[in-house]
Amino acid sequence: MVSLQGLQKLTLLDYPGQVACTVFTGGCNFRCPFCQNGDLLPCGQPSQYTEAGLLAFLQSRRGLLDGVCISGGEPLLQAELPQLLEQIKAMGYLGFAVKLDTNGSHPRALVDLVERKLVDYVAMDIKSSPSQYGAACGVGALYWPQVQRSVEFLLQNRLSYEFRTTVVRELHGPEELQAIGRWLQGAQRYFLQSFENSERVLQPGLHSYSAAELEALRQVVLPWLPQAKLRGVTVDQA
Asked: What is the pTM of this model?
């Protein structure tokens, strides 16, 4: 049984180009200091929603929603996620496109879902540059080889995907962004999104950049990622 911890019934932002809902799974193997979803991190939490309840909700939204976002936590920790996605995909005509949010630490599970055509779009979080990855994901270099394999797989362009980085003043500067640009060169899409402080953030004392500063960091990656964009940030062009 997949650990289902939350359901956002409507989102126009989480799945690019789709009217969707977002399902949050429980458990994560990272401890990113800037994480906003600390309540979802512990593994083994009892589900707040049943799979049957989720499927009934989706059945009632056929023709109204285009897609389903599977987020977390880290969804690929859920061993029974493929079976749930099979049921979602089996809804047939006026069914749902599926977007997966992942930290990239389980490449075998990612490849399996793609090869079985159970996901249509992948959004992989890029925590920082390769040399600073351990600090940004909060668990050292434990999962670095797996993250690298996930990046290499997505760069094969087997499906639609994006990479995205939540930018934190204490963790990301021009050197880190330059290294990320070189690493992800050739990616379909890359987004920079601003860190937002709150009482839920795992590590207190972190800070965001201004919109103008984020735009300057976007400029840093453009030689390698000319399609890079800011997400959720408005830059004053005056």
From this structure: 0.95
